[in-house]
Every structure is written in C-alpha cells, then in structure tokens.
C-alpha cells in the first residue's frame, strides 16, 4: 500500500507575504487615521494657502489664465496756459493806477523785453528774469512810480537799464519841462525835444560824467497816464575790473526808439 505523498499547497508559500501585506495595510489605515485626526486643520489651511497662491499667480479654475482688465484713468484735462498779461500794457489808465506794483512791474518788464527785441536786436536784458530794482513810491498827493531795472549787454557794451512809469493823479498831469531849457550843457549834455506824429512829446538827454559814465535819459509822455522814463548807462568808472566802454549799451537813438516802443505798448 503506497502512502500517497502530500503535495505542498502552492498557496502556503505566499501566506507570509499575504500576512505582511494585510499587516501593512492595517497599519497604513491606522496611520492615515491618526495623521488625519492630528493634522486635519493643518491640511485644510495648507489647501487654502494653495488656492491663494493660485489666485495670486493669475490662474483661475481649470488652469485658465486670468488677465485682469486694466482700469485706465483718463488723463487730466490739458488746458492751454493762460495768456500772460505781461506781454502788453495797452490797458486803461485806471487799471495801471490800481493794480499792485508787482503786477505793473512784471508787465512793464515784458514790454521792455519786447521793445528791445524790436528796436535793439541782440540786446540781452536780465529784467524779465532777475529784476535788479523794483519800487513803487507814492508822492505829490497821489503820484506813484514803478521801476524795473537790470543789467543790459548790447554789441559788446555792458551797462544798466532802468525803466520807470510815473503815474499822475487822476486828471492832474505832473509838472514836467518837455523843453531842453534845463539841460546842463556845462557838463557836455546834449538834449533833444521832439513831438511824435501822434502828438506824444519826448525828450532825450545824454551826458558824460567826469568818471567816464555815459548816460542817456529818455522821457516820453503817456497821455492820460503819466510819464515813462528810460535810463541807460555804461559801467565805465564803476568797476575797476571792467574795461571802459565808449558808450552806453543803447546809443542815443536806440534808447529813444526803445522808450517810444515801450510807451506805445502802455498808452496804445
């Protein structure tokens, strides 16, 4: 009688592996539960941080790029610069008498600047930018004067230019001798009185001081306003470091032309 040999069960060899797998799975489930219980809040916060990062990088749902629409602010309205009143002094006498001295000086400086450009091309005057003298004095019961002045260079001649508006009291012209009777001819002064085609009187005097200063003074009548005076002189004798100039920056006829040009802008 043969004893039947027991054949080994093929599944018996894999039992240790199956046992190990089941043990690993059970332990994994337990570990997962422990991790979930302990770190549930942290995982939720981590997910929220991830969503915020996605939004910050411009990615929306489905991975599509979110392009924010640019909100364009309309540019501020560009308005043309207001025309400066300094370019012209053709105003009624009442305005010149009542406006602040500084406003009159600014307008006067611009008028002189334009007159120099027309009547003495190439002259460089610092008046409109750096007034060397600005004054307004009231005297003689209401007469006021506004003066602007600064350095002037023209054709190699260096000097100083001052222009003054003397405003008469309303209806009362200030006394002024428009003739040349008061010219100090003993000091070599030259004087010329004239009446313009429009009836405006003018008077120009030129003199040479002993120290070499050449001075031209022009007075022009401003009907119903007052008088304009232009003084121009060289710097000879005033600064030892400066070479002597043969004449003022504006020669006699140029000074007269500039003064008449300015007065025309004022009284018009």
Tell me about this structure:
- This protein is α+β, with helices and mostly antiparallel strands.
- The protein has 4 helices and 8 strands, in the order αααββββββββα.
- α3 crosses α4.
- The longest helix is centred in the N-terminal third of the chain and has 42 residues.
- About 10% of the residues have low confidence.
CATH architecture of the largest domain: 3-Layer(aba) Sandwich
How many individual β-strands? 8
Structural shape: elongated
Sketch the topology as an H/E string, one letter per element. HHHEEEEEEEEH
Which class best fits the helix and strand makeup?
alpha+beta
Number of discrete helical segments: 4
Mean pLDDT: 71
Helix % is 25-40%
Features:
268 residues, eight-stranded antiparallel sheet, elongated, Protein Transport Mog1p, Chain A, 24% strand, 2 domains, alpha+beta
Structure, briefly:
This protein has helices at 15-56, 93-98, 101-119, 252-267; strands at 124-125, 133-139, 143-154, 157-167, 190-195, 201-208, 214-222, 226-234. It is α+β, with helices and mostly antiparallel strands and 268 residues long.
């Amino acid at each position: 009688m043969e004893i039947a040999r027991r054949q080994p069960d093929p599944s018996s060899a894999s039992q240790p592996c199956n046992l190990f797998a089941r043990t690993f799975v059970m332990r994994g489930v337990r570990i997962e539960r422990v991790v979930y219980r302990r770190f549930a809040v942290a995982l939720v916060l981590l997910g929220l941080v991830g969503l915020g990062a996605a939004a910050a990088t411009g990615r929306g749902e489905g991975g599509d790029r979110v392009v924010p629409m640019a909100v364009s602010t309309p540019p501020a309205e560009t308005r043309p610069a207001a025309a400066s009143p300094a370019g012209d002094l053709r105003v009624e006498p009442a305005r010149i008498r009542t406006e602040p001295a500084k406003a009159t000086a600014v307008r006067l400086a611009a008028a002189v600047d334009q007159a120099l450009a027309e009547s003495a091309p190439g002259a460089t005057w610092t008046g409109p930018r750096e007034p060397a003298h600005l004054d307004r004095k009231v005297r003689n019961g209401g007469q006021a004067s506004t003066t602007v002045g600064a350095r002037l260079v023209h054709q190699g001649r260096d000097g100083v230019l001052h222009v003054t508006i003397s405003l008469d009291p309303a209806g009362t012209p200030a006394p002024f001798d428009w003739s040349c009777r008061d010219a100090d001819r003993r000091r070599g002064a030259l004087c010329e009185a004239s009446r313009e085609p429009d009836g405006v009187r003018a008077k120009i005097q030129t003199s040479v001081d002993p120290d070499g200063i050449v001075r031209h003074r022009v007075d022009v009548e401003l009907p119903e306003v007052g008088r304009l005076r232009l003084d121009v002189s060289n710097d000879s004798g005033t600064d030892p470091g400066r070479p002597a100039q043969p004449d003022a920056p504006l020669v006699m006829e140029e000074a007269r032309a500039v003064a008449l040009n300015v007065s025309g802008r004022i009284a018009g």
